[in-house]
Amino acid sequence: MSSNSKLPYTERASRHPNPLAKKLFQIATEKKSNIVVSADVTTTKELVDLADRLGPYIVVLKTHIDILPDFSSDTISQLTTLSRKHNFLIFEDRKFIDIGSTVQKQYHGGTLRISEWAHIVNCSVLAGPGIVDALSQTVEKDDFPYNRAERGLLILAEMTSKGSLATGEYTKASVEIARRHPGFVLGFVSTRALGKVTTTGESVGAEDEDFVVFTTGVNLSSKGDALGQQYQTPESAIGRGADFIIAGRGIYAAEDPVEAAKSYQEAGWKAYLARVSGA
Ligand code: 5BU
């Protein structure tokens, strides 16, 4: 686990150099939540309804906007309004993975207009460091029309699916590339803390390095699905260094998604408190 994992979110918020990471930790503290809901429903109405009902309990709403056949400007405006109403950030799990020039067009403009409404996006570094340069340059351009302090990137350093090839040298390279972009890269989607001093012995980063870790594949009642997904509990994910835990079907497919969100919130917060108290 990284040495930062033991620090309370308030402390990480106050010393973090990245404004969006600061905001994440502030929202988490205010709401006593480290929950990200993966809202993988397939109509705008269901997505908006879920965002409104679960908004009070979550820090981030994670979307796969390209699974909505009825996506339109209305989807964007309703999500943006709810993000302000309930104080959560929006993470589009787009997993950019192409040459820099292409991802710039996929991120900024295009059909989905991701840079307009997604505070957080993610990418794989399979194609090398240029993808991160490309996305960060888009945001840093003088004519970028949105608030660049509210735009950030997570590098997909590991995946939860069975047989994932995002391991070893790939994961190490993810950490090295992240270090080159402290203003834009928030951290990782990974199954454990990465960077600084870790139990797996990656190189030691700068003194103030504090990558934020998002962990997917969290479920309180299932071990996996028939298509290779592998689950762990909130307690286990947070014990391995997750700062924010991402749950999809465990919440939105539950009989009562609001009650489920509250259970995940409680379990996630309890595990976080145990971690920072050293228990
Ligand atoms: P689930 O219903 O909790 O299994 O949904 C998991 C979500 O997280 C889903 O949107 C996936 O696309 C996403 N995901 C994942 O499951 N595993 C990964 O390694 C990454 C993303 Br990266």
UniProtKB/TrEMBL annotation:
**Positions contributing to substrate binding:** 40, 62, 160, 229, 248-249
Q: Does the keyword Lyase apply?
A: yes
Which PROSITE patterns does the annotation name? OMPDECASE (PS00156)
State its Enzyme Commission number(s): 4.1.1.23
Which one GO biological process term can you cite for this protein? Answer: 'de novo' UMP biosynthetic process
Q: Which UniProt keywords apply?
A: Decarboxylase, Lyase, Pyrimidine biosynthesis
GO MF annotation list: orotidine-5'-phosphate decarboxylase activity
What is the protein name for this chain?
A: Orotidine 5'-phosphate decarboxylase
Natural source organism: Polytolypa hystricis (strain UAMH7299)
* Lineage summary: Eukaryota, Fungi, Dikarya, Ascomycota, Pezizomycotina
